[in-house]
UniProtKB/TrEMBL annotation, chain A:
Transmembrane segments: 33-51, 57-77, 97-115
Location in or out of the cell: Endoplasmic reticulum membrane
Protein task: Subunit of the oligosaccharyl transferase (OST) complex that catalyzes the initial transfer of a defined glycan (Glc(3)Man(9)GlcNAc(2) in eukaryotes) from the lipid carrier dolichol-pyrophosphate to an asparagine residue within an Asn-X-Ser/Thr consensus motif in nascent polypeptide chains, the first step in protein N-glycosylation. N-glycosylation occurs cotranslationally and the complex associates with the Sec61 complex at the channel-forming translocon complex that mediates protein translocation across the endoplasmic reticulum (ER). All subunits are required for a maximal enzyme activity.
Protein name (record): Dolichyl-diphosphooligosaccharide--protein glycosyltransferase subunit DAD1
Main subcellular localisation: endoplasmic reticulum
UniProt keyword list: Apoptosis, Endoplasmic reticulum, Membrane, Transmembrane, Transmembrane helix
Subunit structure: Component of the oligosaccharyltransferase (OST) complex.
Gene Ontology biological process: protein N-linked glycosylation
UniProtKB/TrEMBL annotation, chain B:
Compartment annotation: Endoplasmic reticulum membrane; Membrane
Role summary: Subunit of the oligosaccharyl transferase (OST) complex that catalyzes the initial transfer of a defined glycan (Glc(3)Man(9)GlcNAc(2) in eukaryotes) from the lipid carrier dolichol-pyrophosphate to an asparagine residue within an Asn-X-Ser/Thr consensus motif in nascent polypeptide chains, the first step in protein N-glycosylation. N-glycosylation occurs cotranslationally and the complex associates with the Sec61 complex at the channel-forming translocon complex that mediates protein translocation across the endoplasmic reticulum (ER).
Domain OST48 N-terminal: 32-285
Residue ranges occupied by any OST48 middle domain in the UniProt entry: 299-437
Signal sequence interval, chain numbering: 1-22
Protein name (database record): Dolichyl-diphosphooligosaccharide--protein glycosyltransferase 48 kDa subunit
Nucleotide-binding found in the keyword field: no
Complexes and interactors: Component of the oligosaccharyltransferase (OST) complex.
Keywords, in A-Z order: Endoplasmic reticulum, Membrane, Signal, Transmembrane, Transmembrane helix
């Protein structure tokens, strides 16, 4: 009884979540896809490290941190370009994108140095 | 003038062998020995022992202990390489010799044989105390043993003891087993427990005790059982060797030639073990055995021959040292399988047993640990009866240079791929983000 009701609740929850997410603008959806790709790549590397061992540890760190850094920067961009976010309503989206590009350049410069 | 020159050359050639015969690191055997006696009768009554020393090339100089002209050194140079004190009753040495002179003599690396006796003087006791050995304080005490005395025609008071509890060391007592018991008659001593350098060579049986044999035993004896030592040796940290015994008569011809039968034992030996025991022990004491030297300490990278100024972490290196033992006449290869080398920085990072080639060359190869700093190659070899070897050689170990690290490791390709795919992703995303409106 309790189980079937909780399953139903979960289904209802997912349904409302999906319908709410369908209303998200396309450019935010693209950013979400990009974040998902980065997190997925990071997870693959962690699993790979668990299998083969941590020998080139600097390479592992730079590989994972490049994914994590990319994901974090993309999330920051998403916060700033979101029209419904009143906190950054004075910040033009072009300025937000320029910040994003600059931060990515610095991140990948560091990653390349540390990759070994 | 020509005649003078001939005399000069002749005198040099006479003196030179004496100068060259002295103790040196190259020929560590003592050559000139001063023997101090209570009276010259000992010279003939102990002649077998003295002759065995002379036949091995020692130059014995017999002097009365109270001779006013005796001296151990002149103009800062020692006149002798070893000292034998066969003068148990001397209260004051003649000449410039005193307790401090004897201790200085030993401290400068010279050897000493002390034979005390019942009624040993305070001076002899003080010398022994300085060496880590305490003789029984009662001046009339002797070691008595009612179970392992030497059987004689008369019942006696059991002070003539047949000792056979030897230290188990081939280097001290020679490789040939001493079958016959050793006769001992005299005062017992105990070792100072805080002195780790002094060893019992011949100890008493558990039933022995030290007391005055002529009086009734009223109080428990202070020295009992196997705590009593008949003969002890010391090897000082400077490799000076000291032999201490509480019996002068054990060196005598009478004891050397005497037949011996231990109480309770059916075998009767024609000859006591004294001669073999004391001869072998004096070979040890005078550095004819058990004196090691280490030469040609070398180390290099595997596959190279030159000694580098420093190593890199994880280098493979080879360390070798040659160790020889002085046999009395020449340096013979020392063969043992327990010589170890340490690669040391505050604590040993590598501890390896050296392999030897039976010709005195000890070598081992090992990998430098993954730690950089200033290391030392250390050989600390201390073995019972042998002189100690202590070698150390400093060597720095450096980390990898930045261009010595491995590049493009196959295992790391997924990580490289991830990093580059993130860059490509960023590039594509930028276009998509800019032009998706």
């Amino acid at each position: 009884m309790g189980r079937s009701s909780s399953t139903k609740d979960a289904q209802a929850l997912f349904h409302s979540l999906r319908s709410a997410y369908a209303a998200t603008p396309v450019n935010l959806k693209i950013i979400d896809l990009y974040v998902g790709f980065a997190v997925f790549t990071a997870l693959i590397q962690v699993v790979y490290m668990a299998i083969v061992g941590s020998f080139p540890f600097n390479s592992f760190l730079s590989g994972v941190l490049s994914c994590v850094g990319t994901a974090v920067l993309a999330v920051c961009l998403r916060i700033q370009v979101n029209k419904e976010n009143k906190e950054f309503k004075d910040l033009p989206p072009e300025r937000a994108f320029a910040d994003f590009v600059l931060c990515n350049l610095v991140l990948h410069l560091v990653i390349m140095n540390f990759l070994g | 003038m020509g005649k003078l020159w001939v005399i000069f050359v002749a005198s040099i050639s006479i003196i030179l062998p004496f100068l060259c015969n002295s103790f040196s690191p190259e020929t560590p055997t003592d050559r000139r020995v001063l023997v101090l006696l209570d009276d010259f009768a000992i010279k003939s009554s102990h002649s077998l022992y003295f002759n065995s020393l002379k036949s091995r090339g020692f130059d014995l100089d017999f002097k009365l202990a109270d001779d006013p002209k005796i001296a151990l050194q002149r103009y800062g140079q020692y006149l002798y390489d070893a000292l034998i004190l066969f003068c148990p009753s001397i209260e004051r040495f003649g000449g410039s010799i005193d307790l401090a002179a004897i201790i200085n003599f030993v401290d400068s690396g010279h050897d000493l044989i002390i034979a005390a006796d019942a009624n040993a003087s305070d001076l002899i006791r003080e010398v022994a105390t300085e060496c880590g050995v305490e003789f029984d304080e009662d001046p009339s005490a002797m070691v008595i043993d009612h179970t392992s005395y030497a059987v004689s025609a008369t019942e006696g008071d059991h002070t003539l003891i047949a000792g056979d509890d030897f230290i188990k060391s081939d280097v001290i007592l020679g490789s040939k087993k001493i079958d016959a018991p050793v006769l001992f008659q005299g005062i017992g001593h105990s070792l100072n427990p805080s002195n780790s350098l002094v060893l019992k060579v011949l100890s008493a049986s558990p039933a022995a005790y030290s007391a005055n044999p002529k009086s009734k035993l009223s109080t428990p004896p202070s020295l009992t059982g196997s705590a009593i030592s008949f003969v002890s040796i010391v090897q000082a940290r400077n490799n000076a060797r000291i032999l201490i015994t509480g019996s002068l008569s054990m060196f005598s011809n009478g004891f050397f030639r005497s037949h011996v039968q231990k109480a309770g034992s059916p075998t009767k030996h024609e000859k006591s073990g004294n001669e073999q025991f004391l001869t072998e022990l004096s070979k040890w004491a005078f550095h004819e055995r058990g004196h090691l030297k280490a030469v040609n300490v070398k180390h290099h990278k595997v596959g190279e021959t030159d000694e580098p100024a420093l190593y890199r972490i994880n280098d493979d290196l080879e360390y070798s040292v040659e160790i020889y033992e002085w046999s009395g006449t020449s340096w013979e290869p020392y063969v043992a399988d327990d010589v170890q080398v340490q690669f040391y920085m505050m604590s040993p990072y590598v501890l390896k047993t050296l392999l030897n080639n039976k010709k005195g060359l000890y070598s081992i190869s090992f990998k430098v640990p993954d730690v950089y700093g200033v290391f030392q190659f250390k050989v600390e070899y201390q073995k019972l009866g042998y002189t100690s070897l202590s070698l150390s050689k400093q060597i720095p170990v450096r980390p990898y240079r930045h261009n010595e690290y491995e590049r493009f490791i196959p295992t790391a390709y997924p990580y490289y791929g991830a990093a580059f795919s993130m860059m490509a992703g960023f590039f594509i995303f930028s276009f998509v983000h800019l032009y998706s409106k």
